[in-house]
Amino acid sequence: MVVSAIVLAATLSMYGCGSGGGDPHAASASVAIKERDFKISAPRTLPSGRVDLSVDNTGPDDHELIIARADQVLPRRADGLTVDEDAIEKQTVGILEPGIGARDMNVDLSPGRYVMFCNMQGHYLGGMRRAFQVR
Hints:
By secondary structure, the protein is mainly beta. The protein has one helix and nine strands, in the order αβββββββββ. It starts with a helix and ends with a strand.
């Protein structure tokens, strides 16, 4: 009986004890992103898995942030100024509605190529996009 107790204690100390190892929705990484008129500043490489994006729009206009898998140029709507969000719906992994100031968004990223962009009228074409790689 004493030997069993020692083996159990050793096993628990090796593997830990608890209620399941933490929150399965917890972010695996935190990444800061800055938006301002016609520019998005963000890393060129992000980790795979759950990522917490801290998005700070320093304005002065409202900006949204859309993240989509993209191996090529994104298709545009008939206006020629905005991305056709319906055409990339299956590739979209996150959308942060327009706003100013600091906001948060959580996304699940698998390895591949992505682009984050603001799709407000003319912002994508004006350079408000950032391609990045997930590893």
